[in-house]
């Protein structure tokens, strides 16, 4: 078992590395074209529509932390590119849902394949144990962040993070 001092030093180094990664993600231009001519926001929107199935604009807005009018404009831009289309909501015939087109699915699969390939390249020289540990640690940080932001209720035995940045 590592000494407490070493755990503290490792926690500091992890905090610095994770903070750097988050800053890069947080402060990049969400509207600048990144992959396949899509903005980061458009990529996230397309991914949500594909993973969640046909979704209403309000669901997309909630997922991306946008107001409904911005989400609607986002859907319009994806629709003009032929990546999504509006369909009748199967649960409520009066409502409209957003669904990916075959071209949207193909674009998403190319983007995902590229990003997974990058992850493969960056982690290929690590042991299975280290890769699995990194995955688990990132999931823990994601869960803690969801709790800190009030997006997820804490589980009974989990560390309770402060509600701050």
Automatic annotation (TrEMBL):
Transmembrane segments: none annotated. One of its GO terms (molecular function) is DNA-binding transcription factor activity. This is MarR family transcriptional regulator. Pfam families: MarR_2. It comes from Pseudomonas chlororaphis. InterPro entries: HTH_MarR-typ, MarR/SlyA-like, WH-like_DNA-bd_sf, WH_DNA-bd_sf. Residues 11-143 form the HTH marR-type domain. GO terms for biological process: response to stress. PROSITE patterns: HTH_MARR_2 (PS50995).
């Amino acid at each position: 078992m590592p000494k407490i001092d070493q755990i503290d030093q490792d926690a500091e180094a992890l905090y610095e590395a994770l903070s750097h990664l988050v800053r890069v993600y947080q402060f990049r231009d969400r509207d600048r074209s990144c992959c396949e001519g899509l903005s980061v926001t458009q990529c996230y929107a397309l991914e949500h529509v594909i993973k969640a199935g046909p979704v209403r604009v309000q669901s997309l807005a909630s997922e991306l932390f946008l107001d409904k009018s911005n989400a609607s404009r986002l859907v319009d831009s994806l629709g003009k590119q032929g990546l999504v289309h509006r369909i009748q909501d199967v649960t409520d015939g009066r409502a409209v849902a957003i669904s990916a087109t075959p071209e949207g699915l193909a674009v998403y699969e190319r983007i995902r394949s590229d990003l997974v390939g990058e992850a493969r390249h960056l982690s290929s020289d690590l042991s299975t144990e280290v890769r699995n540990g990194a995955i688990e640690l990132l999931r823990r940080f994601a869960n803690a962040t969801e709790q800190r932001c009030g997006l997820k209720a804490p589980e009974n035995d989990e560390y309770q993070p402060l509600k701050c940045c």
